[in-house]
Amino acid sequence: MASTRPLGEDISAPSTPIVSFLGPIASYTHQVHTLLQYERPPWSIGLTDHDLAQAALANFEADQYDYEPAQTISDVFTAVQSGEAALGVVPFENSTNGAVIFTLELLADRHNTYPDINVCGEAYLDVSHYLLGHKPTQRNTSTDFQVSGSCTPTLSAPSPVQPRTKPLCDLKHVERLYTHPQAWGQCEIFLGTYLKGIERIDVSSTSRAAEMVKEDTSGTSAAIASSLAAEIHGLDVLAKGIEDRPDNTTRFLIIRKGVDDKAKMSHAKSKSLISFSVDHRSPGSLAQVLESFRKYALNLTSINSRPTKVTPFQYIFFVEFEGSKLSDPEGKVKGALENVEKHVQYWRWLGSWEDKLEREK
């Protein structure tokens, strides 16, 4: 079965390169590894993402790559920084629920733990969440299940938002829910309608949530995870497509140690990411930094922040913008970054890569 070589792989390397991903198997990050490969492989033409997931699992031991699941996003960073893994894939943001805080925290790198981590690519995955668990012993054959009053019109909410889907069985037996923290905000309408007040437990990944539900012999737990996780762990699908929006999409960043020399040859539309901190006592300091990008006609694509954890209510900012430091014939990025340096306490370039979202339009 053919496969494409991932971005930045050293073809002269004597051993098979390792790709580290947030596991266990069947996590959405794993599906990005096995499905996308930065370029869809020739054998995948005509297959759906679900077909690809199964085909990719069958090819998991491919001779070109070794895929190793990590327990946490931090473990992915550590594997790449140490050189144990050639590449890592980490979730960065979701179209419904915003930035993935865990990844931003690691990119903030306050203690210089990951000095060589560099973003070299991105991947987008349409995410459809399934409610997985065990069907109740007494199966309700009716499709009109009792729900909470959250969808009942009130004076304050005369037209409450309705969930996009209904459960496939009665959910009265569900006492606790497991998933990755990022998934809660993507499924609030369904959860608030059919599982209001049910205990929510954060776990390291959606696939780990499915594992834990499988291990719970009481049958009263449920997980928000992928349809692939249901197949792998032998769980019942209690509801399909419970995400709030049909266009729910997660963006993943591909990280490596050091700079990909091949990227200097690329002339495709690119994006770059930097982090920086400013003197919060100086009025307009952040505005001066952002003006650097306007001055050189560089469009900003996202802005995020995290606390410095040095002084309360002071922040590390993350700015993503169109343009590449590695391929900058007009000198726009160089000029903007030189201007940024004049107005910050410190800054760090976190990488440049091909804009996959723009390419897919």
From TrEMBL:
EC numbers on record: 4.2.1.51
Associated pathway: Amino-acid biosynthesis; L-phenylalanine biosynthesis; phenylpyruvate from prephenate: step 1/1
Keyword Membrane on entry: no
Primary enzyme class: lyase
Catalytic reactions on record: prephenate + H(+) = 3-phenylpyruvate + CO2 + H2O
GO-annotated biological processes: L-phenylalanine biosynthetic process
A molecular function (GO) term: prephenate dehydratase activity
One annotated Gene Ontology cellular component of this protein: cytoplasm
Protein name from the UniProt record: prephenate dehydratase
